[in-house]
What we know:
This is MOFRL domain protein. This protein is about 35% helix and about 20% strand. It is α/β, with parallel strands linked by helices and about 450 residues long. Strand 3, helix 3 (about 70-80) and strand 4 form a beta-alpha-beta unit. The chain is globular and about 65 Å long.
Amino acid sequence: MGDLSQVAAVRALLKNIYVEALESVRGERLVEGLGAPQGDRWRISHRDKVIDWPLHPDGRIVVIGAGKAAGSLAKGLETLLGDRISDGCIIVKHGHAEPMLRRIRQRQAGHPIPDAQGVEATTEMLRRVEGLTERDTVIVLLTGGASALMVAPADGVTLEEKAAVTDLLLRSGASIEEINAVRKRLSRVKGGGLLDHVGSASVLTLLMSDIPSGDLCMIGSGPTIARREDAASPMAILARYGLEQAVPASIRDILAKEEPPATRAAGRQEALILADSAMLVEAVHGIAAREGLTVHNVDAAMAGNTHDAALKMTVALRAVPPQDRPALLVSAGETTLQVKGDGLGGRNQEYALVAALALAGEHNAALLAAGTDGTDGPTDAAGAFADGALHERAGAAGLDAEEMLARNDSYHLFEETGDLFHTGPTGTNVMDLVLGIAF
């Protein structure tokens, strides 16, 4: 790229588009937009869907759920329902609690590896829905991260075994759908299991989708969605990634058993996806038009291998003709990354590193790859910036970018070169967003 002032200006533009786009899918904004209850009816309206939800005058409203952005959804719900909320408990990732909740308690737990605090928080959450009747409503808030945070190991499975399986799957390159298909079978609350605990109460589930397919059974591993047979069996998924013998024998025994019968709760059940990556891309297009930028989708349903997705973006950036510049290129979704090295990073940081190496020598292109939840893998960064001058910055720091890529150590490289992107918790979670600019 050019001089430092140009680098700063381009990065400021990418950051501003990212921040403004995410504002459109923040949890409290989405919930508050559903409309307030009137008397004993709550007419919920969101985009092209309307739900008429009865609220019994003598009934209770209990709010439970989990996910990295569950606190933001809860904040909107408290604004909308206020003192009509009788009780509540949600589970969020450490550091993602929403300040100033009055009626819904927040418990913090480990992510992406489940921990004892998640077990304790889930136990408390389940206590809040004991003894409910047909007059009552349970509102379940689910966002990305819920699969790790809502922890109730199946009989015969220890927390340590479940954590070990999660870690193996996360490092294997398995997709989030495949990981959650295994998780569901190892849990007493996932895969519809939460419905066993709500008695005859009605259940309204409000979700943010972090699943490329948008499959309700996979978002948060579907705790309130009645079980169905998945396309691939859990054992077939383990076999696909060579993990059959790596997991404990107790895990293999449970996964090899026949699927339990589907749960059928007595009360009404509805689920509504409040936000997904398509809404985010729509917002980006509006912002780009206002900024006078030509905008193109490179991959609005990004999935598959992280490296392949990064190279696809760099090819598209280089191909933008001069007459169409400045142009904003957009990808959104979730890629899969196989971790073989001993380094630190996440899929967005690795995406940025692969892209930066592919852009070497290119002075008129840059990108930002970041998770919309504000965290990328087991790091404190949301992602990273990339441009064709990374080699120069890495060399000045005495680092070998290719060697660090081979070790999956993108975080430490970008930490030294000043390319990490930090946001803190964002109040949303609709997978990853990549913004590329050709100028």
